[in-house]
Amino acid sequence: MKISVHAVGRMKAGPEKLLADRYFERFAKSGPAVGLEFGGIAEIAEGRSQTANERRREEGQKLQTQLHPGTALVLLDERGKSFSSEDFAGRLGLLRDGGRKALVIAIGGADGHDHSLRDQAELVMSFGLLTWPHQLVRVMLGEQLYRVATILSGHPYHRS
Questions:
Q1: CA–CA separation, 26 vs 24, rounded Å?
Q2: pLDDT below 70 — which residues of the chain?
Q3: What is the pLDDT of residues 133-150, one digit of tens each?
């Protein structure tokens, strides 16, 4: 299953970008052994509309262009459900084993995701109740995808 990341906002050079890139590279190297391929990160600019609803709609429409038929969608959202790393790995494994060819994990903008995306998402998840800066969410997502690959392969990186 090809896993791509869709992010509202651009990651600027700096230590956060270096760390995020390191984890995404680790995932790209370890994922194929368990049937997970890293499809890269698509960045889009934040919406420029006047209201939050219009910005969410504008950003959501850009994401829709990346969602081909049969692509699973996971939204990262502070109002989503929190999972353990094992549960997250299990859910991605089920999507993979269920024949899904592609998955897009979307990091929303400052205003969150459009309601139309929530309705079609396989999963709306959170990295906890705290609000995280966009740059750190990328680091955490990269690390969790690498951790998913290690959990699914039985590698000792993840010890419970």
A1: 5
A2: 158-160
A3: 889 999 999 999 999 999
Provide the residue type at 23 as one letter. Y
State the distance between the two ends of the chain, measured CA to CA, in whole angstroms.
25
- In this structure, which topology does domain 2-153 adopt according to CATH? Alpha/beta knot (3.40.1280)
Residue carrying structure tokens 């995701």: 113
Domain ranges (residues) in the chain: 2-153
